[in-house]
Write a structure and sequence with these properties.
It is a single chain. With 581 residues, the chain is of the alpha/beta class. The chain has 4 domains: 145 residues, tt1808, chain A, CATH 3.90.1570; 127 residues; 146 residues; 91 residues, no CATH class. The protein contains 18 helices and 11 strands. The strands form 3 sheets. The chain has a 6-stranded mixed sheet with strand order 1-2-3-4-5-6, sandwiched between helices. Strands 7-8-9 form a 3-stranded parallel sheet, with helices on one face. A two-stranded antiparallel ribbon has the order 10-11. Helix 5 packs antiparallel against helix 6 and helix 6 runs parallel beside helix 16. It is globular.
């Protein structure tokens, strides 16, 4: 079978759109299969079954607990999930991802969410949180390239919202400036800080946080690197000045805080570096995804350093495969089981005390995906409460988000990774507010110095209770002698193991989602024996705890570094004793 000629394809898709409007009401159960069959015919197939696709394809649910049904599965090309006409497809993204994740072997490359009038096309391997294209039924004939992977002979699609390509280009331009600056003798940390400050300024311009295109104009007005040094230095200083800059070139610049601009580190650029940074500034940074920070982190390290630390960028799709079943699904089950407004409000309250910790956070992508999913869950609960309120005045009231970036804790052995992770989470708040149409102010940015910090989560002191003062602390592996670290591991491993036997798992791991009923706080993560009621000096901010009564089960999630692999531990805490004050 051959592909239809371009004019024939356009005519067939136009007829298909007219047929849908005339004959289908958009009922998910009654019209979905015939809609899909006619779409396949318009694309040049004899029909759905003739092309080898399966209708109502069975998909095993998590832990084999039942079976779900995808409307159409055509491996390895596409999975289609239909919703009734008028449905907000953004609310079904998570369902589509879960179907795609379990559609193994030969998982389809693309996923389409469709409500009979719009096609939302996802490429989860490359772009997780937003579709790579959205095509309306009326535009389908003119935008058929977006579905060219469904033709009888598959063709490369052309997407209109490929943010990955934009991100790669922006990261390449900025990383090139960093490598050039560092190669001519500028200290690595100084170069890294300048690059991060520049990226935040460019992003802030395009999402409306920084007025007047101040960063781009500074680069355009500067005739050379010396002038750029002065202009950018003054801008970064204004961004770290409390209040709103009252006058001068940067009048109206708000206070950014966040810790990033506490040390202003402008660099006198060469002519070539100046031009590269100027080219990077004209990119639409509102379309750049947080993955850019992972790319910058990797490219700021040489090959030997990446190998020594085991640093490797992990895609958001791989992270979501951990986050959805361990974080999202338990909350979803609880939301679905809630039958009253009171129960939903209690869920919101519990979300406000929920914490996620990544002890090998790298550039913060794991924390970013977890934060984004928790914000979506919170918004879902708020909408359910609003829908169930009888009073229209109460239903119209807005709700302030209680899930904030400082609830997502991180640690990494690389100091620059920590700074990158902070920036990722600072900007995550703005991205989430825009996605959920909240319109709330995100400035000044959160200062995350106390929740994301440098250290080795396996050996650094995490708690200071009287029963275990300090864990053995070992610095990062030297680039020239990583064997030194291996020689230290046997004795420390035995010491840590011995402490775990004497103290117990429940004393070492604090239930992150347990709300406080006593007003006390523990260390992070601390022993319940001897540390309750005070803030530990060497730990991060404490987590709430409550006395264990009867059979308390709490899920503790941690990503632990073993060699160069990230492993997710998912343990259930069983019955325990009352914590001692």
């Amino acid at each position: 079978m051959t592909n239809p000629a371009p004019h024939d394809l356009r005519a067939a898709l136009t007829s298909f759109a007219e047929w849908r409007i005339q004959h289908l009401t958009g009922d998910e159960k009654g019209d979905a299969q015939v809609f899909c069959d006619r779409l396949f015919q318009a694309l040049g197939h004899d029909g759905v079954l003739e092309a080898g696709a399966v209708l109502e394809a069975r998909i095993k649910k998590e832990d084999n607990k039942g079976t779900a049904f995808a409307d159409l599965m055509w491996k390895p090309r596409v999975l289609i999930e239909m919703k009734k006409a008028g449905t907000d497809l953004s609310r079904h993204y998570r369902q589509a991802f879960q179907y795609w994740m379990r559609a193994v072997p030969d998982r389809p490359r693309y996923v389409i969410l469709c409500n009979f009038d719009e096609f939302w096309v996802y490429d989860f391997d490359n772009q997780l949180d937003v579709p790579v294209d959205v095509v309306s039924l009326n535009d389908l004939a003119a935008r058929s390239d977006a579905l060219s992977f469904m033709l009888p002979i598959e063709q490369p699609p052309v997407f209109g919202n490929d943010l990955v390509a934009v991100t790669r280009g922006a990261a390449a331009a900025v990383a090139s400036v960093f490598r050039s600056v560092h190669a001519r003798g500028i200290d690595r940390l100084t170069a890294q800080r300048f690059v991060l400050q520049s990226v935040v300024a460019m992003f802030s311009e395009d999402v409306g946080l920084l007025p007047g295109k101040f960063f781009t104009r500074a680069l355009e007005d500067a005739k050379n690197g010396t002038e750029a040094y002065d202009l950018l230095g003054a801008l970064f200083t204004a961004m770290d000045t409390p209040g709103v800059t009252p006058g001068g070139r940067y009048a109206g610049t708000p206070y950014f805080n966040g810790g990033l601009f506490a040390v202003v580190a402008p660099i006198e650029l060469t002519a070539e570096e100046h031009e590269k940074m100027r080219s990077a500034a004209v990119t639409d940074w509102s379309a750049v995804r947080p993955e850019i920070f992972g790319t910058l982190f990797e490219t700021s390290m040489d090959t030997g350093e990446r190998h020594a630390y085991g640093s490797h960028f992990t895609s958001q799709a791989d992270m979501a495969k951990i986050i959805l079943p361990t974080i999202v699904t338990p909350w979803q089950d609880r939301i679905q089981a809630a039958s009253t407004i009171g129960e939903l409000e209690q869920i919101l309250l519990d979300m406000s005390t929920y914490r996620v910790f990544d002890p090998a956070c790298g550039s913060g992508n794991f924390l970013y995906v977890a934060y984004r999913e928790m914000r979506r869950l919170e918004a879902e609960v708020i909408l359910l409460i609003r829908d169930r309120r009888r009073s229209t005045d109460l239903a119209a009231q807005g709700a302030l988000s209680l899930v904030t970036p400082d609830h997502f804790l991180g640690m990494d052995i690389n100091p620059f990774a920590v700074e990158v992770a902070k920036v990722t989470m600072m900007l995550a708040k703005k991205l989430a507010a825009d996605e959920l149409d909240e319109g709330q102010s995100v400035l000044p940015l959160d200062n995350l110095d106390r929740t994301i910090r440098a250290g080795d989560a396996l050996f650094d002191p995490l708690a200071g209770s009287s029963r275990h003062r300090r864990e053995p602390s070992i610095p990062g592996p030297p680039e020239d002698d990583r064997r030194a670290r291996r020689r230290l591991l046997p004795s420390t491993r035995g010491e840590v193991s011995e402490r775990r036997r004497s103290v117990g798992l429940r004393d070492l791991l604090v239930p992150a989602d347990a709300p406080s009923t006593t007003g006390r706080r523990t260390g992070w993560p601390g022993s319940h024996s001897g540390c309750a009621g005070r803030q530990l000096p060497q730990g991060l901010p404490g987590l709430h705890h409550r006395p264990r009564r009867g059979h308390l089960r709490r899920r503790v999630i941690a990503a632990v570094v073993r060699g160069r692999r990230r492993v997710c531990l998912n343990r259930e805490l069983g019955q325990g004793s009352q914590p001692r004050a």
